[in-house]
Amino acid sequence: MIRFYETDKPYGCFSNFAKYPILLKGKEWATTEYYFQAQKFAGTEHEEEIRLASTPMIAARMGRERNRPLRPDWEECKLQVMREALVAKVEQHPVIKSTLLSTGDCTLVEHTSNDAYWGDGGDGKGGNMLGKLLMEIRDGR
Fold first, then answer.
1. Spans of the chain, pLDDT less than 70
2. Residue 126 and residue 87: Cα distance in Å, rounded?
């Protein structure tokens, strides 16, 4: 099992806060976190505001603000949006692709008590959806 979370630790490149810009939708996004949070408001002025935030943490906070008009299909499409961002990151950064492939058949876990959906909830009981998507991409699924 490989646990990751902090960007300055081993496998930190898998974090959505890791500073690996991606090109998607004809724009550069400073990290996958910026892209993911902005897509909650795709096609609105909020999308661009989040893209231009000064840090990934600010982009994340902006994306969680519920005074912004969350797209109605968000729950249905959020996994696909995250997959799209991760595929771009892996394909556009050979170092991440080689790091991901080097994990072989290890289970990848975003280990954090801050998130029980994308991460493991800190106790291993969370959904670990980020880890699962990374493993699917690694395994060609």
1. none
2. 23
